[in-house]
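Justification of computing resources. Each target in the renewal requires a structure prediction run like the one illustrated here; the chain below, 189 residues long, is used simply to show the kind of job we budget for.
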Amino acid sequence: MNARLGWAPAAVLGAALFSLSAEAAVSVVGAGPAQLCYQAADTNASPADFMSYCDQALAGTLSDADRAATFVNRGVLKLAMADVDPAAADFQASLAIDAKMGEAYIDLGATQIAHKRYGEAVRNITKGLALGTKQPHLAYYDRAIAEEGLGDLRAAYDDYREAATLKPDFAPASDELKRFKLVEKPSGT
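Resulting structure tokens:
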């Protein structure tokens, strides 16, 4: 059977394009401000309450790996506060230290979605997935949003489905999949 995708009204699509999900934190070694920054980013704690720990950690002495991770974690907190450009700067600072930080590429992609730079978002999220991430369902979900923004409904559907397969209780992906409908494609088209 040949199939094509149908989709819900544009108002629903618009809502999906503005939700930023990928906020993957990166663990650090040891205790102290960097660890508190990580815990806040990883647990979706109140960003404003923990930003000072990230700043303290970055002002102190950290290994390159922990410094790169802390930039990602601070960026996650900034992104949660809708402070998109400063978050992007933190993800880029992380990549300047460690160009193999998958989460930094994925989260940078989330900032590019906010600016409707969907092609760049797809490229960065794809690179982040290739490098590895501890929460790939978030990356697939965000990449689906970017692909949908580009009008690539088949790729978006596939990525929403992959996000839901990787984490069946991830409601945002399941909710997005409900908007899609597979319909039989007429022969000869």
